[in-house]
Amino acid sequence: MSAHAGGIELQDDLNNKVVLPQPAQRIVSLAPSVTELLFSAGAGSKVVAAVDYSDFPEEAKTLPRVGGYTQLDIERILALRPDVVIGWKSGNHPAALEQLRKLNIPVYITETRFLDQIPTTLERFGLMAGTQAQAQQEAEHFRNTLHRLKTQYQHKTPVRVFYQVWNQPLITINRQNLINQVIEACGGQNVFAELNTIAPRIDVEAVLKANPDAIVASGMGIERPEWLDEWLKWPAIKAVKNHQLHFIPPGHIQRQTVRVLLGTERLCQQLEQTRHTMDGQP
Predict the structure, then answer these.
(1) CA dihedral for 12, 252, 146, 188, sign (positive or negative)
(2) Domain Fe/B12 periplasmic-binding: where (predicted)?
(3) What is the pLDDT of residues 200-216, one digit of tens each?
């Protein structure tokens, strides 16, 4: 990626070339995580609209809306005259993104599935918005903090983890997921890492068979979900027997943003607690 007298040229996460004649002053974000990363990269003042659920930081709540990430208001986007639209491969409809391209609007597509992509995305957003200094600072802080946590926890005694996204249906994650990388950074082992889909549905019997050392849930809000305590009905599970039912707010672990460092630090501390309960277990 580069910025020069002739403009800005870089590749998005799908290796599409994106060219801007100058730093973008009007940016439309098509994913809540994109909105949050733009603010982290120092480009919040250049975001003229976002999709529903763009709720962090606080300033993002007042941005004009262009629909939900799965159903975009193309006319509204055009009326905003954006210099660039930043989309999300897994969330936005491909036809809508292609329609924007055909209307000669530069489209940058993100697909951030792994921890090391977050600082790179920050740097790219900073380049597009002309806020490289703040973006670089945030990116380096992210890399340094993640390195510190990995150095401290990654090679400790492995903790077998069941990560519960939801209860009905019972949903977990496999290895092709940012959350799996967080678990591994903390020295954990995702008991369902080998399943085929990114967010597979499972049943209680599968959890009983896996017999995890820790159960970690997120839910939908900042409060611990009541359904996490449903596992108390199964005292034979190590995590239940040793009182290792943990909660992390979804915004700290399920969004591909700088806040995932908060979730990583919290999970590492939780798994360290679990290790102390594992001493002497067969």
Answers:
(1) negative
(2) 26-275
(3) 999 999 999 999 999 99
